[in-house]
Structure formats: C-alpha cells, structure tokens
Amino acid sequence: xxHARRRVIIISAVAALCAVLAVIxxxxxxxxxxxxxxxxxxxxxxxxxxxxxxSAWNTLTAVNNHTFVTGDGLVFASGxxxxxxxxxxxxxxxxxxxxxxxxxxSHGSATPIIxxxxxxxxxxxxxxxxxxxxxDLEVTNATTSxxxxxxxxxxxxxxxxxxxITITHNHVHxxxxxxxxxxxxxxxxxxDMDSGLGNPGTFDNVNITNNTIENAYRLGIWVGNDREAPAxxxxxxxxxxxxxINATSSDAIVVRYTSSPQIIGNVVAGAGTLSTxxxxxxxxxxxxxxxxxxxDSSDALMQGNEVYNTSRSQGDGEAFDCDGGTTNCVVQYxxxxxxxxxxxxxxxxxxxxxxxxxxxxxxxxDGGSGxxxxxxxxxxxxxxxxxxxxxxxxxxxxxxxxxxxxxxWSSGTTFTxxxxxxxxxxxxxxxxxxxxxxxWGSGNRPNNNTNALTGDPSFTNPDGGGNGIGxxxxxxxxxxxxxxxxx
Length: 487
Known about the structure:
By secondary structure, the chain is mainly beta.
C-alpha cells in the first residue's frame, strides 16, 4: 500500500531532520600543539613585542607585519576592539594549524571585535595561507560608503592548492558591500581563488562552521572564484555546516567551482530582504538570487538546512537551487517555509548539467501567490538539459494560489511518491510527469499525472511548522486511513 509506505518515508524524513541537529555542532580544535602564543590588546597604552599579555601588540599593523608559522597561536584580548584591517600571513601544517582566537583579559568577557570600518577588500584577510583556524571573534565592516567589501576573505592567488582553512564560531555582521555586486568580494565570509590565472589556485579541506552572520551585502558565505571568468580547477572537501545567517541583500550561501561540497544544518532567515539601494558595482550587476545554491560544481549535498522568509530584488528568490553547470546535486532532508518565491529552482544550462535529486524535504507555505512556484524548472536561457528526480517530499499549502510545479523540465524529470496537502488553490503548470502522488485538499492536479491517490495524510499538526527545524515534526504522520484512487 503506497499510503503505508509514505508513512514510513515521512516519519523517516522528520527523524532525519532531527538527527541532523545532533551532528552539526562541530567540535573545537585542541590548542595543545600551540608552542608560541602571540597576544593583541588594542587598548594597551603602548605597543609591545606581542609575546605576553603584558607586552601585547596594540595595533593591527603590528600583527599584519608578522608571518606566523606552525606552532603559533594568535589571540586577541577579550572586551577590546581593534580598528582597521587584519591581514594574516603564514601557514601552519597538517594536524597543527595556526590558531587565531581569544584570551581572557581584564577588560571583560565580551568577544573581541575586529572593526574594519569600511576597509577594503575585507576586515580580515587570510592571504595565501594554509592550515589556519580563525575562531571566536566578532568581525564587522560597516561604513556609509559602498564598494566591493567583505568581512572575512580567504584568498588564493598562488596557483597551488591551499589546505586546512577553518572559520568557526565567529559573529560576522554589517558588511557594507554592493547589494548586486560580484559574490566573493561582497560577502560576510568568502573563500576565493583568482580565476584570472592560467593555473588558478584551489582550496582543499575548508570548514566554515557554526558562525553567525547578520546584515551582509551581498551574501553570507561564498566559496568560488573572484570573477565571472570560467575556471577549470575545483575546490575539494568544502563543508559549510551549522551556520546561522540572518538578513542579506541577496543570497545566503553560494558555492562555485567545487567538487562534493557539503552544505549541512544551516539556518537561513531573510535572505534577499535587505535594501538594494547600494545597487551594483561598476563592473558587475546581477540581482538574481536564491538562499542556498551551487553552480558549476559536482556532487553537491544540501542537507538538513532550514530556510525561510527569502525574498528577492530581481529574479529567482527560491530557498534552494541546483544551478547551471552542476552535476549530481542532492537536496534532501531540508525544511523550507514561508519563502514567497518558492522552495526549489532547477536552473538548466546546456552542457554538463545532469541528475539533480530532490527528496525527503518538507515545504510549508512556499510559493506565495500568483506565478511563484514551489518547484520551478527553468532553462536559464540554455534549454532543459537536466534530468531531475523529485520524490518523497511533503508540500503543505495553507492559503493563496501558488503554483506548485511550474516550468520547463526535461523529458526525464519525474515527480514520484510526493505528498501534496493543498488546502488552498495551488495549481500545476509544469510539463513533468507526476506519478504515485498523494493529494489532499484542492482538486487541482498536474496535467501529466498517473497513479494518483487521494486521502488525508493525517499530519500531526498541519500548518504547525514554525521557526526552528524541530518544528517540522508537525508533519509526522499519525494513523493509516486508506487512500482512494483519484479519478
């Protein structure tokens, strides 16, 4: 019986969402391997040699003039603010990264602040570094002027692979970049390679975890290249886990030119909701956006994320997107709600874009009204070359007339074993095949529809999901009322 099968599937999906919460807390690295500590206290009356709290450096300039090596740790005094740009030089080694963090001082327990005050290209730069961990700091880069500007920028123009970068447990906020400027140079946290080189450098083993990002122009987290030019090289072993992103002018998380990126357990609220009055840069203008998406990448995983209240100033605006040039993209066990421009965008381009899988997700009140679709297939101007498998998802619509499925899908795209609880007037305009779907509520059906079932899925608390991925438990099933075959 398909209904019984669905019951197991959806309970498993909710359970998986909860299980993700238990694993997203990435453990801190031990400091036992630090043999030399360097100290910074920007409230100190005089500049020391940095070797002790009593002789701390008191300017970022002193730090910027130093090259760190394996065994070094750099710590900032709690309760202090350092103004200007921090540029970190040097590299640790595998298993023994340079550690940048905090030490407890007499100035109080508040997190140390690196206040860029409009410095470019970023308040914090990790320039051609490897094996470095940056943790527990507050970073801001606010000003009244606008230009290409980032919060934390990790940059590689060596032509080689740099490994072992960890950005964790930081608070990055108020980044005054261009709302529609290019991604890597207008981000709260950016990992960027110079694609203008004939042999661009790449990154391996990058971990961006458990950071809080707020009020960023253009976006929250970027891994990619510093310009629109194509890059043949690929980053590897990139994880973006457990971050909270509140309010950007455009996107929240974007990954480009990366193999097997893992985007897991992040919470995104209000992507695309900040004012776009800062506009575009003189060299780049693109205000299209989605909350979490990958482009020109392979084997990407977007799992266990919560995305809500996404908006847009121009095109797109969905919670998730497997974008052009991406192969084998998996979107699973996510909770998407109250995104007026939809849950999922399939942005096809000619060439190597194939095999997206969208499964075990819960979508509540995505799509708004009018032509904004929960599932949106689009050609991106190149033609529907992808083949998507969209199955075992739960969609709940409480009001309005959103389009549940809209767009041009390839002939191999299938919607299978999904639950559509349509308590309003959601419609279907796409060309894809829907098979073995459980419908409840509205009598609207896809044009290309086989083996449909009707019946109350008996959710525990339909329309009861709220902010917090745990509230997706509202879509656990209870009881097993027999479905009937739809006419």
